[in-house]
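In the current project phase, we have settled on a layout for protein records. One protein thus recorded is set out beneath this paragraph:
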Amino acid sequence: MKMSLNLVLMGLAVLSFGCQENHFKEDVIMAGGRYVKSDTLNYGKSIYTEYCMACHGVNGDGAGVAAKGLAVPPRNFKLGLIKFGNVVSGELTHDDAIAKSLHQGLKGSAMLPWDLSENQADAVIQYIKTFAPKTWIGKEKELGEKIQITKDPFGLARKTLAIEKGKAVYHAVANCQSCHRGYVTLNEYNKILSDAGEDKLDELDEDFYKIKLQDSDHGYATMPPDFTWHEVRSGDSVEELYLRLAAGVGGTGMPAWKDTIEDDEIWAAAYYVRSLMDLKDSPGRKEFMSRFK
C-alpha cells in the first residue's frame, strides 16, 4: 500500500512539473515587435526556476525564499522596471542591456554573473517580461532609442584635464552631491563656483558630505553610492560610467543626463567618478577623505 501511495505521489509530481513546463500555450509579441514562441517562454521559465526563483520568487515579485537575507532587495519584475538599461530611464530598454546584467552580474549585490548560453539568456529574459505583461507584451509597445557611446573627447593623454572638468561638472553643473556626497573642500567648491560665475559660499550645507536616501519606484528607498567606497553595480570602465550617466537608473532618483548637459561634460563626469572609484582600498583614500571632516 505504501509503495502504491508513493507511486501515486510521484505521478502527481511529474504531472505537476509537466504542467509547469507547458505553462505557456500561445506565442506573444513583445515590445519592439519581437515575436516570441511559447516554447521559448516555457524554456525561459525552466531556467528561471533553476537559477532565479530563489531570490526573485515564484511570481517574480522579489520575494523568494533567499530574499530576506539580502541587504539589496532582489528586483521585483512585476513592476516592469529595468534599472540599468541602455535607453533614457523610463523608456523600455533593449534585450542586450538585460543580458549584460545576467552575464556580468551586479556588483555590490547578490546578483551573480550567470554562465548562460545566448539562447538560455534570451529565453529567461523573455520569460521575465511576462511578469509585467502591461509593460512588455503588445505589438504597440515601443523600445526606447538605444544610447550610443560617443567618441571619448579626452582619452588617456587628457585624463587629468577630464578629471578636473568632471569635478566641476559633478559639483556645480549636475550637482551630484544633492543625492550622493561632495568630495571637495569649501575652498575648492568656491573656486568651482567662481569659475562658473556663481557666488561663493561662507559655509557648506550640513549635508554636503552625507549620502541622502532617495525615494524610488521599486518599493524601497535607494542609497546612492559613495564612489570611494561602494561598488558601482552597472560597470567599472569610463565607457560604462558614461552610459550610466547618460541613461540614468530606471525607477530611481538618478536621472538621465543625456541632452540635459553637454556630451563632453558627461564624459568628464565619468572620468571623475572613475578617479573616485580608484581610491577604494588605496593607501590615499584615508588622507583624501580626512580633508572633509
User: Anything to note?
Assistant: Residues 1-19 have pLDDT under 50 and may be disordered. The radius of gyration is 23 Å. The CA atoms of residues 186 and 202 lie 8 Å apart.
